[in-house]
Write a structure and sequence with these properties.
CATH class: Alpha Beta
Distance between the termini: 59 Å
CATH architecture: 3-Layer(aba) Sandwich
Helix content: 25-40%
Strand content: 5-15%
Strand order of the largest sheet: 1-2-7-6-3
Number of strands: 7
Bound molecules: zinc ion
Number of helices: 9
CATH topology: Rossmann fold
Order of helices and strands: HHEHEHHEHHEHEEHE
Largest sheet: 5 strands, mixed
Structural class: alpha/beta
Number of domains: 1
């Protein structure tokens, strides 16, 4: 048997053993591995209690808590190309859960996250008026390294819940970018993703109302760079939704 054939056989056997493991072992929390009473649960009640819903009221543009006015100080001085809403504040057991999905392939978290977003009240958003769901894309080199795009896993599930098409083919990260977490200022983050996204020559994005999906938003520079690209491609409107948001104050 060729090397390639052996590799395919090995991964097939591994997935069967993995599947049997799922059947034979009692279900456990995707975050802390505690045994779950209810096999339909993905995260145990203790970990879930650490998921902090984003406090209202929020900035009408970027979605971070903003008790005193309609727009936060940052959004007051700029004209963002798309608004952002997030279901939870980033931190605690939710941050651990995001790491489990992203770096430990706990893929059962993707449908769980999608349902949490879908069932969240996102002020000012009407998700029934969306034509297309698109994830923030990874660069092809990163996709090869990780094997999957966590935002695409969540976005695909959300599209299913909304009963609209899911498009992961026509928006691409055309150049690799540094991790936004390494950038210190908003300016650095904007420069890091400037011109990093593009659409394919032929695309079905014109006149579409698009919902962009990402797992976590920090300043929104990445989402806005994506939204700008989609708007240039003729999208009618772009809104962005994420599982979590880093709170700046
Ligand atoms: Zn747990
Ligand atoms: Zn804002």
């Amino acid at each position: 048997m060729s090397r390639r054939g052996l590799k395919t056989l090995k991964s097939g056997v591994q997935s069967i053993i993995g599947g049997l493991g799922d059947l034979l072992l009692p279900p456990s929390c995707a975050v802390c591995n505690a045994l779950l009473d209810d096999p339909k649960q993905v995260v145990c009640p203790v970990c879930f209690e650490g998921f902090e819903r984003l406090a209202q009221p929020i900035c009408a543009s970027c979605g971070q808590p903003c008790p005193e006015s309609e727009f936060c100080p940052e959004c007051k001085s700029s004209d963002p190309v798309c608004s952002i809403r997030s279901a939870f504040a980033f931190g605690g057991s939710l941050a651990e859960a995001v790491v489990k999905l992203k770096f430990e392939s706990r893929c059962q978290l993707a449908p769980f996250f999608a349902r949490l977003i879908f069932e969240s009240s996102l002020p000012g958003y009407d998700l029934t008026k969306i034509d297309l769901v698109i994830p923030v894309p990874l660069h092809s080199a990163k996709l090869k390294e990780r094997g999957f795009n966590q935002s695409a896993l969540i976005a695909g599930q959300i599209a299913g819940l909304l009963r609209v098409p899911f498009d992961y083919l026509h928006l691409a990260r055309s150049r690799p970018t540094e991790s936004q977490s390494k950038m210190k200022t908003r300016f650095e983050r904007e420069q890091n993703v400037k011109g990093a996204f593009s659409t394919t020559k032929k695309h079905p994005l014109a006149a579409k109302r698009i919902c962009l999906i990402d797992d976590v938003v920090t300043t929104g520079s990445t989402l806005r760079a994506c939204a700008e690209t989609l708007t240039k491609a003729g999208a009618e409107s772009v809104i962005a939704t994420t599982l979590a948001r880093t709170i700046h104050w």
